[in-house]
């Protein structure tokens, strides 16, 4: 019996040693999930073993348990395991604790190793740049966020048609790009901006012009492309402002977001400028898309999204950049990290904002819009040209112009309804001892905001209606 027990113990010891060896091999191959339970078991037996602490901490770190990994990585660093310092530097970089990150980089450098010199130089540059960006965080309101599968991004961003269209590149060219490759098509559908991989230069941005029924590649964006990867282009209605992502240009994360503008005289783009925090982060930030008609923007990033997922943040774009002020250092840091979108919503009724945006999107897409009385429609004279005046929708020859005209009428009706509502609410507001004053204040402000949008958009819709009809009835002089 004793001999059998002795043989069993020898066999178990050999199995344990063999399993640890296999775990180290899995660790070297990057299979941290499989190696993790073996290191955990061995660490319980030898809790002070520096290598086991490091291996276990690194496995935790690479399997998404970064905070749990810290004490084990710290033990590894104290025992002069260089790669523990690298992981700690990376962790604190992602926590926006840049001084701590730099401290761990310095500890790694002190080991005198040269195998990660390029990575260290990049980490130090991005850390210093991120520290500077924290001094000029943009004050912007985020009204919503959504986590989606990585391959669903194009299904979740809906743009008004005057902005052009974004769609998967493979929908146009099945053999090009990957599942996230974007094709941006201008409103006139005569130009495409897209990203595609190249054998020489990684991912680059390209453009095409429509020539009759074919697309012809042009070198419009060639000076934006670097030896790094440039992807996910989006162009504003002005035709000269382009937003894109790159992991070059001294980015602070993986992919950062940049903006540039086309210079007609030199037939090239100006040097790109990085977007400020919170649009850029120490994570991958992929898309920056503005719906100028609806008045909302979309930020697509992998921060806080989890594996194989993306987060889409909806925000209110401003006409001018406003720097965040009046916040403590901790508040500024949380704002820059987008720790919570609620931090950005001070004094904003986000439910009302979302409702207004939904209504504005519905104007274009004819979804559940209010009906316009036929008599009111017929009484509204619409000038097409000096000698052409229409009295009703039945006068239009172009179907597109007729639809635009009906949208124009709805917008006018909505405008008049809002004005009446605001006047009535103001009269209520001035009443003595009115307990609903706070509620009325919010209601009036939201209505006035909607009114401002309509004051801008009604003339645009009128112009669009006229343009579409003239294109139909007088194409030679259009």
Protein described:
With 478 residues, this protein is α+β, with helices and mostly antiparallel strands. The protein has three domains: 2-134, Tetratricopeptide repeat domain (Serine Threonine Protein Phosphatase 5, Tetratricopeptide repeat), CATH 1.25.40.10; 138-348, no CATH class; 357-477. The protein is built from 14 helices and 16 strands. The protein has helices spanning 2-29, 32-45, 50-62, 66-78, 82-94, 98-110, 117-133, 153-156, 169-172, 329-337, 350-365, 374-379, 399-429, 437-473, and strands at residues 141-149, 165-168, 182-185, 191-198, 202-211, 214-218, 230-235, 241-246, 256-263, 268-269, 273-274, 285-291, 296-301, 309-316, 382-385, 388-390. It has a five-stranded antiparallel beta sheet with strand order 2-3-4-5-6. Strands 7, 8, 9, 10 and 11 form a five-stranded antiparallel beta sheet that branches. Strands 1-14-13-12 form a four-stranded antiparallel beta sheet, with helices on one face. A hairpin with a 2-residue loop joins strand 5 (202-211) and strand 6 (214-218). Helix 2 runs antiparallel to helix 3, helix 3 (50-62) packs antiparallel against helix 4 (66-78) and helix 4 packs antiparallel against helix 5. The longest helix has 37 residues, at 437-473. It is elongated, with a radius of gyration of 29 Å. The termini are far apart. The relative contact order is 0.07. Residues 1-17 and 367-379 have low confidence and may be disordered.
């Amino acid at each position: 019996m004793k001999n059998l027990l002795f043989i069993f113990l020898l066999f178990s010891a050999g199995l344990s040693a063999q399993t640890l060896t296999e775990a180290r091999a899995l660790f070297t191959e990057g299979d941290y999930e499989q190696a993790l339970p073996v290191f955990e078991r061995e660490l319980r037996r030898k809790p002070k073993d520096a290598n086991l602490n490091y291996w276990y901490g690194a496995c935790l770190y690479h399997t998404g348990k970064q905070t749990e990994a810290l004490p084990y990585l710290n033990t590894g660093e104290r025992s002069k395991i260089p790669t523990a310092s690298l992981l700690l530097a990376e962790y604190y970089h992602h926590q926006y604790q840049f001084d701590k990150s730099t401290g761990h980089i310095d500890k790694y450098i002190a080991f005198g190793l040269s195998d990660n010199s390029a990575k260290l130089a990049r980490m130090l540059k991005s850390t210093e740049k991120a520290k500077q960006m924290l001094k000029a965080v943009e004050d912007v309101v985020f009204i919503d966020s959504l986590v989606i599968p990585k391959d669903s991004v194009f299904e979740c961003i809906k743009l008004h048609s005057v902005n052009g269209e974004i769609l998967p590149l493979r929908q146009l060219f099945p053999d090009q790009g990957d599942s996230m490759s974007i094709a941006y098509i201008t409103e006139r559908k005569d130009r495409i901006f897209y990203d595609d991989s190249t054998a020489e230069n990684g991912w680059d941005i390209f453009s095409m012009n429509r020539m009759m029924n074919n697309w012809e590649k042009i070198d419009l964006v060639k000076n934006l492309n670097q030896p790094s990867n440039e992807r996910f282009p989006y162009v504003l209605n002005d035709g000269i402002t382009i937003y894109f992502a790159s992991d070059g240009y001294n980015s602070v994360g993986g992919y950062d977001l940049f903006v540039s503008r086309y210079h007609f005289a030199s037939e090239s783009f100006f040097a790109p400028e990085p977007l400020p925090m919170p649009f850029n982060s120490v994570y991958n930030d992929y898309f920056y898309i503005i719906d100028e008609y609806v008045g909302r923007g979309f930020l697509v990033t992998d921060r806080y999204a989890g594996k194989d997922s993306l987060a889409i943040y909806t925000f209110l774009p401003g006409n001018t950049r406003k720097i965040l002020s009046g916040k403590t250092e901790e508040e500024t840091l949380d704002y820059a990290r987008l720790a919570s979108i609620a931090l950005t919503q001070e004094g904003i009724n986000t439910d009302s904002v979302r409702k207004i945006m939904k209504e504005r999107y519905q104007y274009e897409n004819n979804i559940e819009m209010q009906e316009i009385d036929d008599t009111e429609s017929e009484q509204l004279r619409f000038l097409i040209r000096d000698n052409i005046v229409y009295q009703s929708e039945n006068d239009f020859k172009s179907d597109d112009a007729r639809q635009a005209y009906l949208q124009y009428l709805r917008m006018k009706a909505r405008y008049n309804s809002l004005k009446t509502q605001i006047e009535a609410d103001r009269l209520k507001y001035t009443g003595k001892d009115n307990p609903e004053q706070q509620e009325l204040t919010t209601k009036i402000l939201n209505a006035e905001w909607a009114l401002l949008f309509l004051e801008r958009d009604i003339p645009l819709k009128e112009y669009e209606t006229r343009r579409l009809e003239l294109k139909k009835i007088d194409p030679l002089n259009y």
